[in-house]
Write a structure and sequence with these properties.
With 375 residues, the chain is an alpha/beta fold. The chain is 61% helix and 7% strand. The structure holds zinc ion. Residues 51, 55, 57, 60, 63, 65-66 line the site of zinc ion.
Length: 375
């Protein structure tokens, strides 16, 4: 699903009505700060807001301006995300340089700065300087799920917009009604995806992710019976599935890149668009790879958390993998409460390690060997 207009944002009525009011009154601030938990639609809303600011129909979702902004190919709307673990001073200097130039085709240049809490102190101070003397016709949308990490001086310079978390039951109802899918399937998917709306929709639309889950749960179930060689094989199978996916993504991206040349206004414009698109594509691949590994680890976690629930005699309605209850019950005879706890620690540790530039295959294998040891 491509979310493209106000109507596609779910469960954030208050934030949306405030933002719409800014657009309709024409009374725009130089800087906004979107605050709220991860996965509730802040980034999507930021894109829709950026299109509403620039679209003649105030965010129709269909015109070329809206489409370009949503697809992140608009020459005047910039995405800034952490490079590695931080947003650096160089990135902010780049903004400083660009922001003073006139917009290419839009009324306003817009900068979406994601995970603004990850700015280095130098970067944050440089951004503060820009916000103190904002360039004309430029709007900043800062996004964070961790307000404690944002400099108070930056917070006070922005118009703050709060996003709230949405109850899983509300998400289930909405999705059943929107997509006409039966309750059991939506409920399973909602549990597996941690009840985050965007993730639920993604999971319903992606067989790949559900298959990935099946592979992981299957492996978790038989882990103890594998010898060392089989275990390494299984680890490589998970990795090669991720690699296949990234390969397909790259092909799609190459096609996208070819299209850009066609829409360019001039040679220079084409080169500029292309450079930005290549950077975005690289980021997207990095993000998708990271997400794929995070999925794998999350599915492992969900399995051991369920075993923890069963061995600890907690209520069944806390189970995530409700479609595997019998398999989980059988396996929980071989694993203790402490064993499941230890397994969860091992997975957490692997998750932490994967944030750094490590050999992912090796990290995964080490995790599998360690998980095999728990009892
Ligand atoms: Zn439009």
């Amino acid at each position: 699903m491509i979310v493209a207009s106000w109507n596609d944002i779910f469960g954030q009525t208050e934030a949306v009505s405030k933002l719409k009011h800014f657009v309709s009154s024409g009374n725009l601030n130089h800087a906004y700060l979107f605050i709220g938990p991860q996965g509730v639609g802040k980034h999507t809303t930021a894109k829709v807001f950026a299109s509403a600011i620039n679209c003649e129909a105030k965010g129709c979702g269909k015109c070329s301006c809206c489409v370009k902004i949503i697809n992140e190919t608009h020459p005047d709307v910039f995405q800034v995300v952490p490079e590695g673990n931080f947003i650096t001073i160089e990135q902010v200097r780049e903004i400083q340089k660009e922001a003073n130039l006139k917009p290419f085709e839009a009324g306003f240049k817009v900068y979406l700065i994601d995970e603004v809490e990850k700015m280095t102190l130098a970067a944050a101070n440089a951004l503060l300087k820009i916000l103190e003397e904002p360039p004309v016709d430029v709007i900043f949308i800062l996004i964070t799920s961790n307000l404690d990490g944002v400099l108070p001086t930056i917070i006070s310079r922005c118009c703050q917009i709060y996003f709230r978390s949405i109850a899983t039951e509300v998400i289930i109802d909405e999705i059943m009604c929107r997509y006409k899918i039966d309750k059991d399937r939506v409920e399973l998917v909602a549990r597996v995806s941690g009840g985050i709306f965007g993730n639920v929709v993604e999971l319903l639309n992606s067989n790949r992710k559900l298959k990935r889950r099946e592979s992981v749960l299957y492996l978790a179930e038989k882990l103890k019976r594998l010898d060392a060689l089989e275990l390494v094989d299984e680890g490589s199978r998970l990795i090669s599935e991720v690699e296949d996916f990234l390969g397909e993504l790259k092909l799609k991206q190459e096609a996208e890149l070819a299209e850009v040349e066609e829409i360019a206004l001039s040679k220079a414009h084409g080169a500029r668009l292309k450079k930005r698109l290549v950077e975005k594509q690289k980021r997207d691949r990095g993000r998708e790879e990271f997400k794929a590994f995070e999925d794998i680890l999350d599915f492992f976690s969900s399995w051991y958390r369920d075993i923890l629930i069963i061995t600890g005699c907690f209520k069944n309605n806390f189970l995530t993998n409700i479609d595997c209850e019998e398999r989980l019950r059988n396996l929980s005879k071989e694993l203790s409460f402490q064993g499941a706890q230890r397994a969860l620690e091992i997975i957490q540790e692997t998750k932490r390690i994967l944030r750094f530039n490590v050999n992912k295959q090796l990290a995964l294998e080490v995790m599998l060997f360690k998980l095999q040891e728990v009892a």
